Every structure is written in C-alpha cells, then in structure tokens.
Amino acid sequence: MLNKKLALTGKSVPFFENCTALASTITIVMISCERYRGICQPVKTRTTKVLSRSQIGILIAVSWMSAIVACLPFFFIPIYKDSKFKDGTPIKVCRNTIKETWQIGYIIFVLCFFFILPFLALLIMYIIIAKNLSNDATLQSHQNILVAKVRLKKRRQVVVMLTLVVFSFFVFHLPIRTISLWVVYATRENMIALGLEGYYNLLTFARVLFYLHCATNPIIYNAMSTKFRLATVKVFCTKKSYKKGPPLITKQFSSSLPSRESNQGITSSDKNFPEAETTV
C-alpha cells in the first residue's frame, strides 16, 4: 500500500509541475490576445460586450483543462523501481527515463507548442501593437500639445512594458527548454562528463528561472501599467479603503517547468548519475 502511494506521488509531482507551467503559458497568450484586440482593433472592441466574470471564469477553466490534457502523458513517463544508496541500503525511486519514441515525440511537442509557437505569437502581436502605439498620426491631430506629449509618453511606456514581457518570457523559458531537449538526445557519457554536481546545478538554475517568470509578470505590469495597479488595489483592498478615481491619462490613452525526481538521494545502482529526465 505504501509503495503504491509513493509511486502515485512520484508520478503526480511531474504532472502538477508541468501542468502549472503550461497553464501559465496559455494564460499569458490569452491575455496578450485580448491586449492585441483592445489596442489594434478598438472599433471591434467597443462594439463587443465586455466579458462577464462567469465568461472569464470559463476561459480560465478552459486554459487549465487544456494544460491538464496536455500533461497527461507525464503520468506514464516516470518509472517506479528498486535502487540502492551508496551504502547499499535498498530504496524505491522514480526515474523519468526518456527512451521510447512516443516520449521523445511528446517532449518535442511540448517544446514546440508551449514555447516556440507562443513566443512567436507574442513576438508578432507585440511588434504590431508597438507599431500601432508608435504611430503619431493621432497625436498630430491634437491642438493641445500637452495632451499629445502625455499620450506619447504613455505609449512609449506601454511599448517598453510589452518588450519586457516578450523578453522575460524568452529568457526565463529558454534554459529549461534547452535542457529538456539536451537530456532527450544527450548520451549518458555526455551527462557523466558534465558531472553530477554540474548537472544538478544547471537543472536547478533553469528551474528557478522558469518559476521566477510567473512572479516577474505581475511586477512588470504593476511597475508599468496604471490600470493594472488600480485593479490590484481594487482586488486586495476593501471597498471602504479603495478610492475609485481612474486617472485622466488612462482614459486618454485608452482611446488611442522540469520534472522533479521523487527519490530521496543519489543511488549507487544508478552509477551515481540519474537517468535521462526531462523538464517542462
């Protein structure tokens, strides 16, 4: 009974890790699509009804369900087996061995559909958004020079924010994706040449960067977006303490993720080095 629980835990950890990571990626893409519609297609946005809370809840549920379905194979990748510590003590471990064709294909699928394609989509959308915001044709039509300068400053601020969002997505995700692909195709000799300590240091560094990305986006939005700050205050403050007062500038501008091993240590039967394990 205990072994079954440990096996279930070993298979669940990679699943939930990757599920959370993929859901985060899907959410970023969905938010970016909505931002693209609001800035580049303002006419359609004004004629379209604002999403209700129930509709937003449905979108969130769909994003999580998509991530759950996409991560189901992670339940079948980990192998629960017998092993030994260096002193010969028997123990049970979970190994994420990537050997079969379907496993390699699945890792490549995750890399393409949850890193390469989202990155390209974000890059294209934000380039178009930046071009629209940088277009000063509407600014020249205003007789009030002060208003035009304020709008131009706000537009430049949004362009910087969008650039940081794309840059952070690429920088924080690239190490973990690169390692996951390297682990699939690297030979055991290559991994041993890197060294056990070097391997785990590299893997830990990539994982920390990957999870930091989830915490970085809210910081960027709060630092660069007035609307996001107001929404944050509205969510976390009580109705009495929240003073509603959207700034004029905002109104003016609106018109214009690695699989973790569940073993407790390094074992001698594994030749002091883990089998190929993949990350998100």
How are the strands of the biggest sheet laid out side by side?
A: 1-2
Query: What is the general shape?
Result: elongated
Number of helices: 10
Tell me the structural class.
Answer: mainly alpha
The portion of residues forming beta strands comes to 5-15%
**CATH class descriptor name:** Mainly Alpha
Order of helices and strands: HHHEEHHHHHHH
What is the number of E strands?
2
- Give the count of structural domains: 1
Could you say what the CATH topology is called?
A: Rhopdopsin 7-helix transmembrane proteins
Q: Largest sheet, if any?
A: 2 strands, antiparallel
Share of residues in helices: over 70%
Low-confidence stretches: 245-274, 276-280
Q: Report Rg.
A: 24 Å
Family: Belongs to the G-protein coupled receptor 1 family.
GO molecular function: G protein-coupled receptor activity
Domain G-protein coupled receptors family 1 profile: 1-221
Organism: Lingula anatina (Brachiopod)
